[in-house]
Amino acid sequence: MNENTNGRTVALVTGANKGIGYEIAAGLGALGWQVGVGARDGQRRDDAVRTLRARGVDAFGVPLDVTDDESAKAAAELLAERFGRLDVLVNNAAVAGGWEQQPSTVDLATVRLVLETNVLGVIRVTNAVLPLLRRSAAPRIVNMSSGVGSFALQSDTGDYAGLPASAAYVPSKTFLNSVTVQYAKELSDTGILVNAACPGHCGTDLNNHSGPRTPAQGAVVAVQLATLPADGPTGQFFNEDGPLPW
């Protein structure tokens, strides 16, 4: 049964049970949107939905393991049955895979794990819900990337030049940035705006809460890109202050 009879915007945020994803869901919900909390852990998903609702967010749970084809398909079917469309997809789910994974000593199984979630998971979920996004009057896709994935920012004089070499997480975000551009190119005549977002160095479970920024601060750019006007940019990379170099 289609419950979206009031024309309210419907969003899905992957990995929304905690951290930046949770705060993105809260930020979109504060706009009066209906927000799907995508997460694979049922208890954490239910807890996030409950706390979001206590904050006044119209949140609902979406069982979703971004590494599983059938899970992504089931999530799309849930959205189709309940709302008939999807307006905004925020691909936030990600894993770090260990920061010590340098190229010369990396465990290839770790690389595969990181890419499966951070890149293939984005493709898998996006493709599963793309038919629903095509039914929206103002569809948006936001891929949560990182400045570490920027070649320019990793250069000798870049903001992230001092970071240790990484053969898993960092390349996964570079890969994700390229995938973002490719989707934007393919969908350029559809009205679907596709952009990558850098939340900055936020303290989350991903980095053992070492970042100086809060998850709520990191969520700001996602809300900005999710609410772009029809003539807004596509195929670009942003933080909350504006465009970033590739």
- Structural class, from helix and strand content? alpha/beta
What gyration radius follows from the Cα positions, in whole Å? 17 Å
Segments where pLDDT lies below 50 for 5+ residues? none
The CATH top-level class label: Alpha Beta
Helix content, binned percent: 25-40%
CATH architecture: 3-Layer(aba) Sandwich
Strand order of the largest sheet: 3-2-1-4-5-6-7-8
CATH names the topology as Rossmann fold
Number of strands: 8
The arrangement of helices and strands along the chain is: EHEHEHEHEHHEHEE
Number of helical segments with 4 or more residues: 7
Report the span from N to C terminus: 43 Å
Query: How many domains comprise the coordinates?
Result: 1
Q: Describe it for me?
A:
The structure is a single chain. The chain is α/β, with parallel strands linked by helices. The protein has a single domain, classed as NAD(P)-binding Rossmann-like Domain (Rossmann fold). 40% of the residues lie in helices and 15% in strands. It contains seven helices and eight strands. Strands 3-2-1-4-5-6-7-8 form an eight-stranded mixed beta sheet, sandwiched between helices. Helix 1 links the parallel strand 1 and strand 2. Helix 1 packs across helix 7, helix 3 packs parallel to helix 4 and helix 4 packs parallel to helix 6. The longest helix is centred in the middle third of the chain and has 26 residues. The radius of gyration is 17 Å and the shape is globular. It starts with 9 loop residues before the first strand and ends with a strand. The mean pLDDT is 93.
